[in-house]
Amino acid sequence: MLNKWEGIVLKSRAYGESNKIVTLMTKEAGKVTVMARGAKKPTSRLAGVTQTFMHGMYMVQRTSGMGTLQQGEHLASMRHIQTDIVATAYASYIVELVDRLVDEGPEPFAFDVLLQALNAIEEEYDPEAISLFVDWKLLPYTGVQPILNACASCGSFDGEFAFSFSQGGFLCHRCFHQDPYIIRLSPTQLKLIRMFYNVPIDQIGKLELKKGTKQFIKKIVTTIYEEQTGIRLKSRSFIEQLERTPILTRRTTNEESTD
Ligand SMILES: [Zn+2]
Question: What pTM, to 2 d.p., does this model score?
Answer without folding.
Answer: 0.88
